[in-house]
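Supplementary notes for students who missed Thursday's class. We covered one full example, reproduced here. Read the sequence, then the structure, then the short commentary at the end.
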Amino acid sequence: MSQKNVQIVRRAHELYRRGEWDAAIEECLDPGIEWETRWPGLPPVFHGHEGVREWALRALEPMQIEMELVEARAVGGETVFAAYRVHGQGRGSRVPTEMRIFDLLSVRSGRIYRRQTFYTEQEALKALGMEKQAMSQKNVEIVRQAYLRVLAGERGPLPDIFDADAEYRTTPDEPEAGALRGIDEITRGFREFEEAYPDLRSEPVEIRGKGDVVFVWTHLRAHGAASGVPVEWEYAQVYTLRAGRIIRVVEYLDRAQALKAAGLEE
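Structure (token representation):
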């Protein structure tokens, strides 16, 4: 049934994309639907087929927009989570618009009887009682973006992501193994490592999160500055975040040990 509900949501979107708005309403929406979009400048909720038509006239008519369905998945019971990318411009103003929206769509007897729209994924997951999952995903993205920025040429540790009092614990096999405390000490440690391996490249192979902890399995490649000898190995980093900033990193050579520390035991 849950997969059938996803298909109904996809069908409604397909009809909308084809310009068959009335067909989408009649075929896929319950006559008593609650249409809760919180669209700027409009009432928060519209009711029934005529209410949806009124919303479309007031919200969509002034715009020339494309709405792409990026994801649709069942999230338990009658509910489907849908994510959209919206882009376009005002018909008169030509002002460009681009945003992401997230819907919770409740389906019963083959028809959508409630739509709730949110403007961040975290809000939508919070409404589902999945706030911890939303925060975990946010932390994963913070760590992922940090890796991408360093791979693009920025030098770590990134001061806008690392807390000033952060702690970094290196793997026990390193010459200066131990804890680096504070952003200045961590920066010095990073620079010493870069001097030893000037072409260092560290790429995330796997990133997983749970709550305020993020596990990263990393593949590292480099050449020794003096010897030119290539080195390559994989290791784990377990990040702890608070309020969107990294407060602790611990390196592990053993994957299972790292997953256990992150609360992600397999």
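Commentary. The helical segments are 2-17, 21-28, 48-59, 121-127, 131-151, 183-196, 255-261. The first strand starts at residue 29 and ends at 36. If anything here is unclear, bring it to office hours.
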